Amino acid sequence: MEIKEKIIKDLDRIINEYIKAEFVPGLAVGVVYNNEVIYTKGFGVKNIDTKEPVDENSLFHMASVSKTFVATGIMQLVEQGKINLDKCLIEYLPYFKLKDERYKNITIRQILNHTSGMPDEEDYEWDKPKYDDKALERYVRSVDGRELMWEPGEKFAYSNIAYEILGHVIEKVSGMSFEEYMKENILDVVKMKESNFLKPLVSKDLLTSPHILDVKNGYGATVSEVFPYNRAHGPSSTLCSNVVEMCNYAIANINEGRFQGDKILKNTSYSELWREYASTEWGGYTSKIGLSWFLGQYKGNKVMSHSGMDTGFRSNLIILPERGIAVVVMINAYYIGTKILCTSILDILLGEEVHYIKTSLAQHIIRTMFNNNSEIALKEYDKIKQNSIERYLVYEDEFNAIAYQLLERKRVKEAIDVLKISIEIFKESANLYDSLGEMYLCEGNKKLALESYKKSVELDPNNENGKKMIEELSV
Q1: Where is the Beta-lactamase-related domain (predicted)?
Q2: What is this structure's pTM?
């Protein structure tokens, strides 16, 4: 069997098994191999209520993968001599300011590589979206009360605010709206005709729906009432695309800006984009930061990547430029991680045998609990632990994250149930007890909250939050 045929067969097998095991609503995968698109397929449904199937043309919200397009736009303007990476931001936006005077020293390069010291955004107001063409500028002007976390250039800290500012710089320097600039200078050049940062222009027939966790009809996915769109956050988040068109973009980057005779960038720009500027302390193939792109290695291969997560969506773009390989993954649910799926696909492309993709222990045990009860779920865990634990991703943090996702839905009782069974599995976890204390407080049960915080501090004497809460609750 030809290598390419074997890859396609193996991908079909593992992805179909994965989507059934993880109860994924919808998923799309694109693969570039030897600089050629060999795989673009959809799985599952665009919306669990309508049951319309996902295909390779289905559009997903790409979340933070959008930021790599912003960096491309900035570098285009650098090539034209309209932006200098080492000039200060205020030279391009004279009205920009933050609470302390150090903001005057922030450079474009520092904003691009997340070393500006700017904080991150906590509320994207997806439930109160702005659609007008002044939304981005209003947002950038509105951050004047924020403070820098440290001196610009000192160290890495991921900031969505920084990328909204960069998008506004593109507007001011180019004289075009951010979305119009992206379409004309990047999306159209690499034949991304269905893709757009401006949601009102995206095909409703192709767009998938966001899904979140809930327990109203049994544990699992429900369609989110809120779509993650707000023009004020266009640069950081709002690209909608499909796997076919994202593969075009991946090929353009593998070829250092070239795509079918056209260019989005000169090859010299990649020495800036893909230079290591700072450590992220995240490890693996995202251990360093370039200009928007995360850099690292996977099994001896250089990797450039970016992932994204917003309400109801996850995405990932991974490029191994020296191998002519790229993987694009899109999921219309944000409670399912993409990393293990991506690395399993990479393993197949690198010639390894992959018998299955590990699935989430947390999702399996918690689903068993809600479909049955805690006793049966714990018996299931004991059986897995003895016989097949190697087939699962065992992450304490994932149990914790599910509890908080349920809390977001105001499912406080269910969130407490999740943490209680999690503690049965991770008996020495100070963090889970700390979270349980918070959940009990949300429920109004101060007695059990105090007990949980005391247990947390007993397990971790350095838990300052736990100590603070014990002091407050003991008054």
Answers
A1: 11-334
A2: 0.93
